[in-house]
Sequence to fold (181 residues):
Amino acid sequence: MKAATLFSRALLVLALAGASLCGCKVKKQGEGADKKVDIETPVGSLHVNTQVDPKDTGLEVYPGAVRAEDEEKKHAANLSLDSSVAGVKVVAIKFRSDDPPEKLLDFYRKQLKAFGEVFECHGSFSFVHGDRHCSQSIVGNETNLVSGTEDRHRIVSLKSEGKGSSFALIYVQIRGERGTQ
Fold:
């Protein structure tokens, strides 16, 4: 099943979960950067955790890089949406490095090869019917490296920042009906 179709199903499950508040259990812990929310409904579950271990992305952190935080301390998330119809898991964490983008790109190109062919996009990219598409940008300073299978992707999204770099490590897993993955 194609990634876009699975993602659409996952969004449908989320909508059904919101509409089906009867029998819904909500558990919320922490505040700000330490927030964790678990929602269980008869049709599925949603789990959000802002305490993320970089190992959950399946990628190593570039040596010397430090976690990045914005004004709202939003620097990482581990999200999973699960039902008997479909599931989506996304793990993302932001970092900063004093090294130039070229060094980081070389480091991550080598790592990503372990997961398959490395797709490189200078600009934004998207998945359309499970295929990767790049919107090339001459003006922007964003580079995305993507590797993986139809249902499991590892992504490094990198931007030049002054003399250094900011980057995000992202893991995306999409599945169809239970037992199909």
Observations:
- Residues 3-175 form one domain.
- DSSP finds two helices and eleven strands in the chain.
- The radius of gyration is 17 Å.
